[in-house]
Amino acid sequence: MEDSEAWLFLQEHYKMVLCTVDSHGFPHAAPIWYVIIGNAIYFRAQPYKKKIKNILRKPETCGVVEDGERYTELRGVMVQGIAKVVDTDKLLRKRVFELLAEKYRKWRDTDRFPRIWQETFGKEHRVVVALKPMRIVSWDNRKWVDQANQQS
Q1: For the chain, first and last CA: distance in Å?
Q2: 126 near 45, Cβ under 8 Å?
Q3: Which residues of 74-111 are buried (b: 16+ CB within 10 A; e: fewer)?
Q4: Bridge partners for 78 per DSSP
Q5: Which pLDDT belongs to residue 152?
Q6: Domain limits of the chain?
Q7: Distance between CA atoms of 82 and 39, rounded to whole angstroms?
Q8: Which listed CATH number (3.40.630.30, 3.60.160.10, 3.30.70.2760, 2.30.110.10) goes with 3-151?
Q9: Of 74-88, 102-116, 131-145, where does mean pLDDT reach its minimum?
Q10: What residues contact 116, with CB distance under 8 A and at least 6 apart?
Q11: Which of 4, 71, 138, 147 is the most buried (most CB within 10 A)?
């Protein structure tokens, strides 16, 4: 994919698997919902979550968004970058929360959870994290199929 295609792919998808490094040096992979503002990826999480603790200790992260079932359909984007908790910028925090609410409105079905979950976890404080890409790698196996079809 070209850079513009990779950013559009990220914009159009909903779930990224974010990989951080834990205190033992092992990868820790967790799904996140995210939004893009400028050339950065933003998400939110409770401060006690493992991914946040890992980022505070070692900010180098990697996120992957992919789709496709068959090998000839596989495509995706891997973002390697530096993550930082940016919770002190109140305007940015508000903007990220608004964009997340807008993007995931139809997917956020936590009203189906028990009331105790909603009262305990649903209202917890969340910090905002910015992932600033240092390197983006993308693939789109569909292009190889298109190229083979053009040669036939």
Answers
A1: 23
A2: yes
A3: ebbbbbbbebbeebeeeebbeebeeebeebeeeeeeee
A4: 64, 137
A5: 63
A6: 3-151
A7: 12
A8: 2.30.110.10
A9: 102-116
A10: none
A11: 138
